[in-house]
Design brief:
Radius of gyration: 22 Å
Bound molecules: protoporphyrin IX containing FE
Strand content: 5-15%
Order of helices and strands: HHEEHHHHEHHHHHHHEEEEHHHEEEE
Largest sheet: 4 strands, mixed
Low-confidence stretches: 1-6, 188-194, 198-207
CATH superfamily: Cytochrome P450
Structural class: alpha+beta
Length: 462
Amino acid sequence: MDGSGGGHVHLPPKPEARNGRASAWSYYHLFKRDILSALPARLYRAWMAEMRTPFFRSYLCNDRELVDLVLKDRPRDFPKSERIRVGLKPLLGEAIFISNGALWEHQRRVIDPAFAGGRLRTVFPAMWDSGMAAVGRLKPLADGRPVEIEEHSSHATMDVIFRAMFSVPIDSEIAQAAFNAFRAHQTAQPVANLAAVLPLPKWMPRYHSKQTRRTASAIRGLVAQLVDDRARAIAAGRAPDDIATKIMTTPDPETGRVFERGEMIDQIAVFFLAGHETTAAALAWALFLLARYPEWQDRLAAEAQAEIDPDKIYFSTMSRLKTSRAVFREAMRLYPPVPMFVREAARDEEFRGRRVRRGSQVVLSPWHLHRHERLWDRPDEFDPSRFETPNGKACLRSAYIPFSAGARVCPGSAFAMIEGPLILSLLVRAFRFDEVPGREPVPVAHLTLRGRDGIHLAIRPR
Ligand code: HEM
């Protein structure tokens, strides 16, 4: 593949976008196959694009003022899309992530303290232990044969979230069962975001296949068991000081109410999903990018070998893993784990001189914003050092939203920015990752951004 700017740069994979128009129903089929290549190429240059279906309209916004308006300035006028709620409800119930209004505000007041700055230090050893366990699991596979890496990054991040929330490593029976159920659910659940652009009427039953319902209820059953065990431990005064205890015992500072059992099950389900899928996707893409650009991998390995003492766990090490952080950040620019998210206009609006009717779907697309040709220098190139350039710095502030922004910004962003670079450094410190010829991953938007047939890399000891 030819790079931009005359040089020969081997660009990271990007699905070929569609040129020209498509009818609403051919969109349906295109989208079902692959939303990223079904969308038109002009979205990498446009400030806004309107998509019409017979039932509603969607507006994809790349204009930074519009992105700020929706996410930061008037979030209450752009609640989470009802269409997306329908898709995720079997798994997430009324949990944060899909809730709106007063319920969401209550949930956020209880959850935020569990992720406050100081608590990251407390969960850091859990992240470290999970990273070391991942290194241990890869050791027997590190003989140069192709390994599907998403599976391993998911295992690692699931382990982190289990340990951080419940002080239990994933090897325990219950954690392993939940991990398997989530994997089955991911395969059974089509892209939730499709609901916002598919030309289907709202009443049409979607996404709740038998398989989806079955895996969702299996996960919820396991979560219920964890919550009940923990409630007993809290009552007996022997609960560990982890995120689950914190969330289950923190009263809403405004109403004094703590989460009830059902609410707690919803919230835990959301943390498992939001807290591991995303970081796992980012890690897998980061490892792929390091395999493709070995000079960056060598730099990262050298940093990890110089800064990490495998026998001692220091939170302060994190501030020195600068290359790792830059690589992780750049990986999320090119492959944002949540490639799109959707809001709904609660009232009539005007966007860039166009009338946007109440009920319209407003699509924010990190995938397009992060590769916007009028914002970023060399948007499709992998260059972790770009964030030190004036263009990179400016775009980081205004055109980089892997964690969203504003009131509904991801509460786990600081957690993920420790977890991701730490695990990346521990893995690259131990192993060399190489591409597998003929197996370039194709990005597709599932619940998170994944490789169509996984991401395959060859691993060898370093
Ligand atoms: C690289 C890792 C991660 C990425 C890229 C990411 C991205 C996001 C994004 C984009 C949203 C907003 C979605 C929307 O507005 O529709 C979000 C929300 C959320 N994330 Fe994350 N996330 C990550 C890791 C985590 C972790 C580690 C946790 C918890 C431990 C977490 C918990 C949540 C929760 C609870 C919400 C819902 C917040 C709300 O609705 O107010 N995330 N995340």
